């Protein structure tokens, strides 16, 4: 007998457990961090962090990133070219480096792009240089780190104006949250063995109870599901110890899944600032969902997983951008925008602007707590959105669900499901103003716009929506499990973009302006017409779907076949037809003759 159940997480004993996975108890991040701290860090303990330098003419950088997104895909900057145009001058870099040298600290080579300078030293040296004290905390896997007791760091006025921020100090409990829900049948068993039945079901199941086979979902969204023409690499942000080694629980799950779908697993990892040693269940589950979904919906894709410890999200994003090895960047982790330090938001904005100029598309899950995103990490029940999905240069992906088998006539609803204990994240950013590409849909949100506290209008979240229920995933240590949430939705959407890139042989870059330009008459998007994302019923009547755009599901879900047709029209140069030229010349000469008389 299969039993539907809500799978709750657990509070671990390591610092990395502060990444409160969806479904876990809502607890203040700072309180958790305080409980993880050990005595004051020894003066000789090693401290490593990354200094993010302000670019030359930040306003020009952001303006050029927006301008580039208005143009068809094609030539983009390399990190070296980006550094040439926007990195701070060598004089400023030397000034910052010399400052830390004065305190006995060492600085490493600036990352490609010229915005990140790694710094290493002792706790005593860092305390003197930054004006902060350090405690000692232990990460999952046993590694100890020095944790700053305040944020932001207090810097000398001689260099403060040249620094955008510092990452890797773990200050104030700034940790991202997974947008993944583990629900449904906890494990499918049979006398013949779960693996055989699960693999069979993975190819044909089509129901809310048993899940939806990738082939069924692909037909519904008209996904080509093939990376055959040109290789595409998707970068994935994870905070787990990711490996494909068969000797590990995650590696064994990934290899089983790859055999099940009959596809090779092209996976490599990049450890950012020491990577992550977190082998906790919720973190491995999130990685399995992201990787296996991409493998299902973009067969043949190359996956490059960037791993970092919990408080190093900004360094992770900066590394993904500075290396520029992946054209699509996926993150299914996030923080409530209202709880995210402003400096961290600014650092991410710089990273995503660089990504846009380099032709990298950033895709983020919009969160699983509906219109009250802060509930995942505290007791704030107010309206809030998830970061980085709220960043204007990121494509935020919400969730939709179905109550029947998928076919051409099936219509979606907003994902808001007690079975999965979550709802599609969405609402109005209170940090980022309304981007130009959303002006055409701003009126669609109706009275909800009254919640905007910014004079220039608010960024609306999410941008699009995809299926957020019924993914059958081989979860490390648990076997076949039905998962859902906006992590699933974002991963399916990222896979769809990878399919487009492979067929068109071009990087898409920042796609938001293009997506919003495809108005309802093109038929590219199917808007969601039922439901809302007030999961806890804290804000009755708010953010229910109203028309073309909603604050629960954005523009809706795309038909990828039509999206491919639109992409072809966008990238193919419009060659003037000879008859048009002749007609214009004849009109000119006729006008010239008439003017003579």
What does this molecule look like?
With 597 residues, the chain is of the alpha+beta class. Helices cover 31% and strands 21% of the residues. The protein is built from 16 helices and 30 strands. Strands 13, 14, 15, 16, 18, 20, 21 and 26 form an eight-stranded mixed beta sheet that branches. The radius of gyration is 24 Å and the shape is globular.
Task: Please sum up the structure shown.
This protein has about 600 residues and is of the alpha+beta class. Helix content is about 30%, strand content about 20%.
Helicity, as a percent range:
25-40%
Catalogue the unreliable spans.
1-35, 182-197, 574-597
Strand content: 15-25%
The geometry reads as: globular
Assembly classification: single chain
Rg of Cα set: 24 Å
Report on the biggest sheet: 8 strands, mixed
Mean pLDDT over the full residue set: 83
- Helix segment count? 16
Number of strands: 30
How far is the N terminus from the C terminus?
93 Å
Structural class: alpha+beta
Task: Give the topology.
Layout lengths: L4 E2 L22 H8 L1 E3 L5 E8 L4 H12 L9 H8 L3 H13 L3 E2 L8 E7 H8 L3 E5 L5 E5 L8 H4 L2 E5 L9 E2 L2 E4 L9 H11 L1 E2 L3 E2 L1 H8 L11 E6 L10 H13 L4 E6 L9 H17 L4 E6 L5 H11 L4 E4 L1 E4 L5 H16 L3 E5 L20 E2 L7 E7 L11 E2 L1 E2 L4 E2 L3 E7 L24 E4 L2 E4 L3 E5 L3 E6 L1 H19 L7 H6 L7 E2 L30 E2 L1 H12 L6 H19 L1
Parallel strand pairs: 13-15, 13-16, 14-15, 16-18, 18-20, 20-26
Antiparallel strand pairs: 1-10, 2-6, 3-5, 3-8, 4-5, 6-7, 9-17, 10-28, 11-12, 17-19, 20-21, 22-23, 24-25, 27-28, 29-30
